[in-house]
Input
Amino acid sequence: MTAFQDPTGQAEPAPPSPYALTDSIYDPESVRLLYARGVDEGWRCLEVGGGSGSIAKWLCSRVGTYGHVVATDLDTTYMKGLTGPGFERLEVDTHDIVTDPMPERVFHLVHARLVLGELTERDKALERMAASLRSDGWIVIEDLDRGSLASAGDDADAAAVFERVQSAIASALRGRGLDPNYGRYVFHRLMTLGLNGVIARGGSAVQPGGSPMAEVLREEAATHHGELLSAGLTQADLDAYDALLRDPNFAFMSATMVTTWGRRPSLI
Output
């Protein structure tokens, strides 16, 4: 277990989490899906891209005294607060899912949310995650398909601004070798890896400006600010986009979160 402690032996507090918004949006559905997979006493679980550790925390509450939860990320800074009573079953590891060693046929559950589409070697990572499942183990992947992102109002000018910025962001992601629509492909990937009972379902929603989802899009545009200007957008474009996402009278369709799950065949 990776310990986060100061010299006095007290738990070092985690800094403010940049994952707070996405956790608030997606955690309820993630928990519902994992609960439906039957996470129970004694399970060994792997949370890839643990972020703030919110899902790892829930898994720890389910696996009991004899279970074990491994939460990994390239940066585990924001999981520093996951210490104290009840977390002795938690292991936090700095780990690269593409290149670092991975155990095989160990876990009852492997889960990743908003991870694979952010990797250039996403198919390799998915294959390694599936290989770490024990007989009858579940893999649950939640990733985005940005194809549904669009204005949901009747203002043509607002729709044009939204579309220009979204198109530029998608192009910037592809330019890095990432896939903004990877969620739609996970079903087929898991089928080719020989998993049983593979199911994929997508969910999106119409959201107003000023909502948590709108704030996520604002932060995303700020992150890519330089790339978007280099791609030909103007500061006026970005200012207009930002104003739309602050405006409660503007509406947009969110990206689709595609959740795909499957099970390693039984050895019996």
